[in-house]
Amino acid sequence: MMTPVKRVNRFFMLLTAPFIGLLIGLLWIQPPLDLQLHVDQFSPVQGPVKETSLIKQELIQAQAAAAYTIDSVSASAKLYKATTSEMNQIVNTAETQASRPQIIYNRRISVKLGIPSEVVSSDRIVIELFQLNPGNYKAYALKIKLKDASAATMSLADAVSGAETTMRAVSRSGAIAGINAGGFADKDGKRYPLSTTVVGGQYLNGFESSFKDLSFVGLNKNGQLIGGKFYSREQLDQLEPQFGATFVPVLLKDSMKMPIPEKWKLSPKRAPRTVMGKYKDDQLLILVADGYNENGSSGATLEELQDKLFNMGVIDAYNLDGGGSSSLIFNGRVVNKPSDGNLRPVPTNFLFFK
């Protein structure tokens, strides 16, 4: 028989059983609450202040690092600028030193010509015009520095007669200067270039071996003066001629005076002359001597021009067609005084362009 106490206890157990079961279920499904975490959230600890202090320190360190980087970059920039400036000075000095021998040499050869009466200069060419009065004759000189090989060429007359004046060749081509070139022969009312002639790198009428003291003179593809006697095409081809014509004789070769044929010493002795030579730095020197006629009483002898060129330091030189053919055109005018009274039409002319 159940006592009143037991009945009371059973009543309370039945009354609390649902709540106990609910509590057990909650504990089974969720982990125990971290009471300490919740307590810390509401505890007056120093976390935020400490974090702020750390951030401030990091900012100070970052600022210091940035300042150091800026100083380093600035120092590097200054060093680079200083180094670049020094290198530029070294390069300029080296270029100046390298060009000094050329400048000195140019002064040395120019002083023998005197003061130029006229100068034309561009990025392609420098031409200086001089007047020479050695005593026995009057002449004009062109000293030409080719910076671009294409600033020089040789024209071939395209007229029906096969000839044109140097002025005509200069005018129709737009050249700044021109001189008569090789010799010629007349046949059937037409004028033909004498012997081997090269125009634009091509042989006009094939190659003809040198004969009767004839010599070829022209420029190669690099704008350097070439010439002499050639007995085979292969021999001339080795010099890569770009253009050139033929006449007689050779005056200087490798800084040595060449023997002048007796015929050319006397027929005529004096005459208007056109000669072309080069210095060792490949500058060109052209002399055109005036003469009043072709009977041998006025103008220059070949020996006089040979000596003049030799004394001026020219290393190679060649005589071109002379007499009434001698002509010098510069800056739109006829510089010399042609012995015919007028310019003579010729088949070939050396031309120079600004």
UniProtKB/TrEMBL annotation:
UniProt keyword terms in alphabetical order: Glycosidase, Hydrolase, Membrane, Transmembrane, Transmembrane helix
- Phosphodiester glycosidase domain residues are 174-353
GO MF annotation list: hydrolase activity, acting on glycosyl bonds
Tell me the superkingdom of the source.
Bacteria
Give the source species: Paenibacillus agri
Name the InterPro entries for this protein: NAGPA (IPR018711)
**Is Membrane found in the keyword set?**
yes
Q: Does the keyword Membrane apply?
A: yes
* Stated name of the protein: Phosphodiester glycosidase family protein
**Chain ranges passing through the membrane:** 12-29
